[in-house]
Amino acid sequence: MSENQPRKPLFYDPTERRIRSFVTRAGRLSIAQGRAIEELGPRFCVPYEKAVLDLDKTFERSAPTIFEIGFGMGETSAKISAGMPEKNFIGVEVHTPGVGSLLKLIGELSLSNQRIIQHDAVEVLTHMIAPNSLAGAHVFFPDPWHKARHNKRRLLQGPLVSLLASRIAPGGYLHCATDWEEYAQQILEVLSAEPTLKNTAEGYAPRPDYRPVTKFENRGIKLGHGVWDVVFVKV
Question: Where do the segments described as Interaction with RNA lie (predicted)?
Answer without folding.
Answer: 149-154
